[in-house]
Amino acid sequence: VQLQASGGGLVQAGGSLRLSCATPGMTFSFYDMSWYRQAPGKERELVASISRGGRTNYTDSVNGRFIISRENAESTVYLQINSLKPEDTAIYYCNAHFRVGGLNYWGQGTLVTVSS
Question: In terms of C-beta density within 10 A (0-12 exposed, 13-18 middle, 19 or more buried), how is residue 90 classed?
Answer without folding.
Answer: buried
